[in-house]
Amino acid sequence: xxxxxxxxxxxxEITENLEYRRDIYLYWQGIAPYLENGDxxxxxxxxxxxxxxxxxxxxNNTTRTYAIFKNMTYESHKFELVxxxxxxxxxxxxxxxxxxxxxxPNEPVSFTKIAFETEGKYELSWKPPLPSRxxxxxxxxxxxxxxxxxxxxxxxxxxxxxVPANTTVFNVxxxxxxxxxxxxxxxxxxxxxxxxxxxxxxVIANRVVGKMKTVWINSI
Length: 220
Hints:
Elements: E1 12-16, E2 22-27, E3 42-50, E4 53-55, E5 61-62, E6 66-72, E7 77-84, E8 94-98, E9 109-116, E10 121-127, E11 138-146, E12 158-164, E13 169-173, E14 180-188, E15 197-198, E16 202-204
Parallel strand pairs: 9-16
Antiparallel strand pairs: 1-2, 2-6, 3-4, 3-7, 5-6, 7-8, 9-10, 10-13, 11-12, 11-14, 14-15
InterPro entries: FN3_dom (IPR003961), FN3_sf (IPR036116), Ig-like_fold (IPR013783)
Protein name: Fibronectin type-III domain-containing protein
Organism: Bracon brevicornis
């Protein structure tokens, strides 16, 4: 292939499971179709390190936009990603670093998206993470087009922008207002990131929220 996938310091998501381990989702921006340059094109995780030691492990699932590793420990992990086809991989590797639970920064709070239906404009807002020893230097705002909103994983083209740490509102204008767009945010330090927090629902601008009707419960 003629290029490598692009990643960001915050282009991963962590969910903790009931076994005191965590599932790690890795996201990237795919290359342009004309750069695939051959049959059997795919993205591949070629190296995984845990606390600096290489692991013989494969993702539970890999698509053209993300990979999932389930039941991972709380230690730090580094993943190397390449684009490959029938001829072989592109020599340039993309890296995603997932901090250990002890070093990971706190996430932004109350991440909300407001949609302006006729304009293709979204207003994103959030509150800074809870105070910690790790100084937040930037936020990364992610968005991608998808057939359905969260909780479905995004399979569209991932884009992002970095904003300074003193920012709490950011506007994004999308090319097609009729499409569904998912949004996420990460809080970044100089060396690590909280990972992605996805906006779970969309607020429609200038729409009055009706009062909930009275519901009577006779028995439980």
